[in-house]
């Protein structure tokens, strides 16, 4: 099913707005520079002090800049390439487009919840609105059985197993941040800084990791929903892990210890790219 003209323009609008949102922090960098702030829990936090991310902790602000850079260099170009691929009626292109839109939806959904209020707020609102509309329309464009493929057991095991591993590994990583302070009575994780809650960990555990587990299980068992969701999630995860790798490299460059993520993220990135290539290749030449 070739995306309609209205859906095509919706995706193009997302590309334009995402480019603008990702470019602004590199263009408008005014500010007094890094400064220290005492959080509501009495901890001293070094804030970034420049541009739209000026009131965010310095190590978190560079993560936003790193993701913006990946969105500009990879995310938006891939979105437009996938749109052109899908416009030719390719089933693999349609799945890739779903994954690219999903990446931008998750990015700006998290920005709305995590970033301190700034000039880009309404732009992020528009991006979440448009990417959600596009993602729902793309996922519902055809029934799951339209994406069914008779892949080999090896393909199903690798892709399904990887998605199960990804969901479980990240869940355990985040629980390792949240649970120890609950057990020792300190309650607040050190990484909380001056934020009110753990936004990424909360949304991952509640919303973004369960689809990885479901898609992996369904794909492993050869069930039809997995044929749709597994390729979409692996494409999304490839872009997301690339952004996370850029974040930890930038953090390491400013002297912040990335911990186990420095090993885990590159491995998950390699696995996601391999799983995306394998799962999309199963749809090569097929049309909707």
Automatic annotation (TrEMBL):
TM region(s), chain numbering: 60-83, 95-114, 120-140, 161-183, 195-220, 232-255, 261-280
Tree of life domain: Bacteria
The UniProt record lists the keyword Membrane: yes
Entry keyword set: Membrane, Transmembrane, Transmembrane helix
Keyword Transmembrane: yes
Name of this protein: Uncharacterized protein
Organism, as annotated: Sorangium cellulosum (Polyangium cellulosum)
């Amino acid at each position: 099913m070739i995306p309609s003209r209205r859906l095509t323009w919706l995706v193009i609008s997302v590309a334009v707005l995402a480019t603008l949102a990702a470019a602004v922090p590199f263009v408008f960098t005014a500010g007094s520079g890094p400064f220290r702030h005492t959080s509501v829990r009495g901890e001293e936090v070094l804030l970034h002090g420049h541009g739209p991310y000026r009131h965010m902790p310095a190590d978190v602000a560079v993560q936003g800049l790193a993701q913006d850079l990946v969105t500009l260099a990879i995310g938006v170009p891939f979105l437009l390439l996938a749109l052109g691929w899908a416009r030719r009626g390719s089933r693999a292109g349609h799945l890739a487009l779903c994954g690219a839109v999903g990446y931008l939806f998750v990015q700006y959904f998290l920005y709305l919840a995590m970033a301190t209020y700034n000039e880009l707020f309404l732009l992020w609102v528009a991006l979440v609105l448009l990417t959600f509309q596009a993602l729902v329309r793309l996922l519902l464009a055809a029934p799951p059985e339209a994406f069914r493929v008779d892949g080999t057991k090896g393909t199903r095991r690798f892709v399904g197993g990887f998605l199960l591993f990804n969901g479980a590994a990240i869940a355990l990583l985040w629980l390792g941040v949240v649970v120890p302070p609950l057990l020792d009575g300190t309650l607040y994780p050190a990484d909380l800084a001056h934020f009110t809650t753990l936004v990424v960990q909360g949304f991952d555990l509640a919303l973004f990791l369960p689809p990885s587990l479901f898609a992996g299980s369904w794909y492993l068992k050869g069930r039809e929903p997995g044929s749709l969701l597994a390729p979409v999630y692996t494409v999304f995860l490839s872009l997301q892990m690339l952004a996370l790798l850029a974040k930890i490299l930038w953090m390491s460059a400013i002297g912040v210890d990335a911990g186990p993520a420095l090993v885990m993220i590159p491995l998950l990135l390699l696995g996601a790219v391999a799983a995306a290539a394998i799962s999309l290749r199963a749809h090569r030449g097929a049309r909707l």
